[in-house]
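Researcher: Sequence of Class I SAM-dependent methyltransferase follows. Predict its structure.
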Amino acid sequence: MYKNEGYWNNFYLNNKELKNASEFIKSDYLSKYNAEEYLILELGCGAGADSFYLANKCFEVIAIDGSETAITKNKALENNFVEFFCKNLSDEKEVKNLLYYVNEKALRGQKNILIYTRFFLHSISESVEDILLSAIKVNSKVPTSFVSEFRVKEDEKLYKVFNNHYRRYVDTNLFLEKFINEGFEVEKFEKARGLSPFKDEDPFLARVSLRYNLDLKSAKI
Ligand SMILES: C[S@@+](CC[C@H](N)C(=O)[O-])C[C@H]1O[C@@H](n2cnc3c(N)ncnc32)[C@H](O)[C@@H]1O
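Model: Prediction complete. Tokens:
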């Protein structure tokens, strides 16, 4: 079980409006990556709109969510470019195995890894974020980028369309400090409203592009 699992299963059972790819996936945070060089790992893919968008651009995509309902629906539409897996990403062993699998696959295909998350980091606790961070570092065998969009603390009091489940409003100063201390370089960062309006809601979001510095990893060993 992960936080809000029942909520998310119910959400994907009832929501039919989730087929449009996000503005983030179409933004310049993603445009420099190409399918020849990068294997995509999407975490918290939900209804899979962004995963299918990338698959349609010929990226090889491994897309993960803990919601059995979402993954079953997505799997029915799978194609040669995208594979969906139902995994509990708060389970340390699951996450380590996943990152091991993705690194081996990238090595075999001579690709780098791009970890993509949208609206996922704010749906997990900081301890789950730390599990993820550690699994990325421990298993890293190829250059790895991390591109993410998430809600920030400035969003906490703003109007929400869906407001009945757990959210963590991320303090971006602490977030960046932590990732930098753990060996990531910040390639791009912004936070603002107007990035992803939804119905009457205009959330305060951060967008970030980080790169895990493999040289720093070997220097520390
Ligand atoms: C706000 S939704 C975002 C979905 C999609 N990325 C989007 O942009 O619409 C958060 C997703 O993260 C998933 N999730 C949250 N915590 C999780 C965990 N511990 N393990 C696996 N999936 C998780 C939920 O099931 C949900 O689909």
